[in-house]
Structures are given as C-alpha cells and as structure tokens.
Amino acid sequence: MKTKLIIISCLVFFIFGNIDSSGFNIYSDFPSGNISIEKVKNDTLWLHPDLRDTKGDWFYWCFAVDMAKGKSLTFIFTKPNVITTAGPAISHDRGSTWKWLGIGSVKNEAFSYTFSTNDEVRFSMGMPYTQKQFDFFIKPLTESKYLKLDYLSNSNSGKGIERVIIKPPDGKVNYRVIITARHHACEMMANYEIEGIIGEILNDAWLKSNVEFCIIPFVDKDGVENGDQGKNRIPHDHNRDYNDTCIYEATSALKDWIPLWAENKLFVALDLHCPWIKGEYHENIQLVGSSDEKIASQEKLFCDILKSTNNGELKVSDKLYLPFGVDWNNTISYTAGITFRKWVSGVEGVKLPLSIEFPYAINEGQIINQENSRLFGIDLIKAVKVYLRQQ
Ligand SMILES: [Zn+2]
C-alpha cells in the first residue's frame, strides 16, 4: 500500500491561507510510515492513525517532520488510545534509535514538541523496526559459520521474507526451535527481543552446537515495510491464516516448510507479539496460556524457568502467565482463523508452542527501551536453553 507524502508548507498556505504555519514538512513516505492528517492550523495539527484495511480500531502510526527549527508544534490525535503511557517515541536518526517523550508528556491525546533542528525528526507510537534496521544488525553476523541468512519465500507483493538459520557447521543437532515475529505488522518491539536472542545464541557454545534455530523476523513483511497495522487485517490477519487454504505467501510457505524441516526435533516454537497499547494486562510481559491442558502444563513449567533466567532489566512477575479464559485470551479471540501457535502445536514433536506478548512502553511500571528489550530476549533464550536441557 502506498504511503502518503504530505507537504504542509504548500497545503497550509492554500487551504488555510496562514503563512505563519508554513515552512515545515510532515510526511510518512518511508518504510514504516503511517499517518492521516485531518487539519493543520498555525502550529497545531489534528491527526489519527491510517487504519487502511484494518477491521475496527488500532493504534499504529509513524511520521516525520523536517524544516521546523524553532517551531513548537502541537499534535492532537482525534482518536483515543493511540499514544502509550510513556508518550510518543522520537528519533533523530531516521529510526535507528528512539526515546520516549516521557510519562506526562501527553494531555488529552495531544503532545507538543519544540524543534531545535531543520533535520528530520520522527515520531511514532512505538519504536519502528523494518528491514533497514534488521540488515544493519544481521550483516556483520553473517560472517559466523553458524549463521545463514536466506529467504523463506516472497511476500504477496514480492518482497523477500528473511529466514535466519543458526546451527553447527556439521548440521548435527538434537533439537530444533523456530522463532517468529511480526505476524502482526505493527508489533515491532518483538524485533529488539530477536536481536538479543540471536546475539545470545551465537555467544552460547551449547545452544549453537546442539540446537538448530530458524528465525523469521518479519512474517508480514509487506505490512512492516508499508507501515500497516497488520492486526485484524481484512479478511483476516497473518496470525489467523493457518487454515486449510492460506491467503498469504509467508504463512503458506511456513506451513509447507516447517513439517519437512522439523524431523521430530522441533521442541519449541516461539511466536513473539505485542499486546494492546496500554492498560491492565497490556503493560506487563505475558505468556498467553493455551486451552490445551498438556501444553498449558509445559507453559507453566517454562514460566518458572523464565523467572529463574530473568536477569535483565525488565522483570517478569506472577502476572507473566495469562491462563486461557482470562481477559482477551478466550475462544472469541480465535474465531477469525487458525493461529500460528495452534497450527504449529500439531507438528510432530512440538512440546512447547509459545505465544509471548511484549508491551510497547511499560512493563510492570518499568520503561521499556530498545536495549532492555534486547536484554529480555537474552533472558528468554536462556530459558529455552534450560527447558531443552530438561528434555
Ligand atoms: Zn500480535
């Protein structure tokens, strides 16, 4: 889907005839870009997320402003629940590093920002992560004899779906593990976890010598690059596409490939997600409980292990496990189609098919950032190691 370029410097003059508010540009025509601008008057903008093909409301947005040095702009969102408890995230380096504007920076769905530069400043509800960030992270690691980067398939629009394989050079392994992210395009915080996970696997002699990992960082690659919500996409999203007939190339390829690759050694499947934007059940790391009692008992075992490997900054608590039947985790949430977790639990040998929700901004009152998200990825893969060694 094409993103929009909106040059306010021209529009404002012609639509509102106000020369004072001209001079700056606001745009979203870059990977991950998403915004709908309703109105601009002087230094105030009214805007909302571009839902595109989303059923119902969702909250993802990301835009950039330049040529605004000396200006204080106020951004008013016309829909509720589109900014995190920590405010919007801001980047001064085209999306490489992000910081939250901070708790208390948003009043009545609006925030203001004073620009000290004419250079680009990006704003988003989260800390967007696209192929550009992944390439920067993974390129040096492809030197490792343990790691291979190739493509699972093409996306529906022809983009490559990256697949990272990490295994010992002789290929002899006792276990296999698959890790997926961005079944829902907007859930970018999962990719920082993945950076931590990959780094730790390559640092750990036992993991890289005994386990073959397959990591798919962007299942909905088109949605990630286009800046889509991805969640609740019409007619259904990527994580409701594991039906007899798939409508997305990536899910179809995963369904074809995983059973061939697994060879009865695929013990763990880890599907990484992010929850709703804020509020109870959405501001703590959560392992989503299965309705299958056998799987649920393995999940509870894994939760106990994760508590023991939780040495990073972001702490899990007794709220880590969300049993089936509590809050949104109920039958109604799974009527739109079969999820990856549900499908992969049927692959021979799979004992622990996990779905983990990692919040955007707040975990148990702690502020989430790129680095502590990576550290949580390390805790997570260390827990997988302990779990596998008990098998
Ligand atoms: Zn999700």
What's the helix-strand series? EHEEEEEEEEEHEEEHHEHHEEHEHEEEH
Bound ligand species: zinc ion
C-alpha end-to-end distance: 45 Å
User: How many distinct beta strands?
Assistant: 20
| Contiguous helical run count | 9
Explain what the structure shows.
This protein has 391 residues and is of the alpha+beta class. 26% of the residues lie in helices and 24% in strands. It has helices spanning 8-16, 131-138, 189-203, 205-210, 221-226, 249-262, 293-309, 340-344, 370-389, and strands at residues 5-6, 25-27, 36-41, 44-48, 62-66, 72-77, 89-91, 99-100, 110-114, 121-124, 147-154, 160-166, 175-181, 211-216, 266-273, 286-288, 321-322, 352-357, 362-363, 366-367. Strands 11-12-14-13-15-18-16-17 form an eight-stranded mixed beta sheet, with helices on both faces. It has a six-stranded antiparallel beta sheet with strand order 1-2-5-10-7-8. Strand 3 and strand 4 (44-48) form a beta hairpin. Helix 3 crosses helix 9 (370-389) and helix 7 (293-309) crosses helix 9. The longest helix has 20 residues, at 370-389. The protein is globular and about 65 Å long. Residues 1-21 have low confidence and may be disordered. The structure holds zinc ion. Zinc ion binds at residues 183-184, 187, 239, 273. Zinc ion (ZN) binds at residues 183-184, 187, 239, 273.
